[in-house]
Write a structure and sequence with these properties.
The protein has 54 residues and is mainly α. It is built from 3 helices and no strands.
Length: 54
């Protein structure tokens, strides 16, 4: 990803550095988040944050 990519610009704008992680999730979980359309990764991150108690 280049330094001028939209994702990098968005992360810099909100001041939050993201870390890449690889994990295996059940297909129905991924499908449910993706069905919500654009922003599904952000919604998944929010759900994980809530589950972690942050």
């Amino acid at each position: 990803m280049s330094a001028s990519s939209p994702a990098t610009a968005a992360a810099a704008e909100c001041g939050v550095a993201k870390r890449q992680a690889t994990l295996r999730l059940d297909p129905d979980v991924i499908d449910r988040f993706r069905a919500g359309g654009p922003g599904w990764q952000r919604r998944m991150s929010a759900a994980l944050r809530k589950a972690a108690g942050s």
